[in-house]
Amino acid sequence: MQLTRFTDLGLRAMMLLAAAEQDGRRVTTGAIASSVAASEHHIAKAVSRLVDLGLVNSQRGRRGGLSLTDAGRQASVGWLIRELEGDNEVVECAGDNPCPLLAACRLRRALADAKEAFYAELDRHVVSDLVRGTQIPLLQITTLPRTSTEEQLSPTERTDS
Description:
Elements: H1 5-22, H2 29-36, H3 40-52, E1 56-59, E2 65-68, H4 70-74, H5 77-85, H6 107-122, H7 127-131, H8 148-152
Antiparallel strand pairs: 1-2
């Protein structure tokens, strides 16, 4: 089974957000796009879907960015893929041009069982499991740590300016 590019980008965005969260940072759509070598437009579409699913918070403005919600931290990878892919059959047997073997075919059931086994394995994992204890390289993402000390400093007192 091969995932669509949309689902791939959605999973990568979730992993990068989980990794950035370990460091207490918010990231932008542009930073994710740079990190996964994808267009910002494609990442924005995937992130929009993740926001609609309640997995990602999106905040505009100077202190804005993206972060995982509690639901995003707890969602299983299998559930996430089902939501991003849609729960379609592995092979389209019916439709406009139905397969002539449909009435006696056992392949359709075998593929459906295999797909469920695939999802069942992925249901055992949440996104944070995929990044826990690893150092996922985030391409020099230019995000500022969210610290109360930094918010109190004037722009001329900051060391990162």
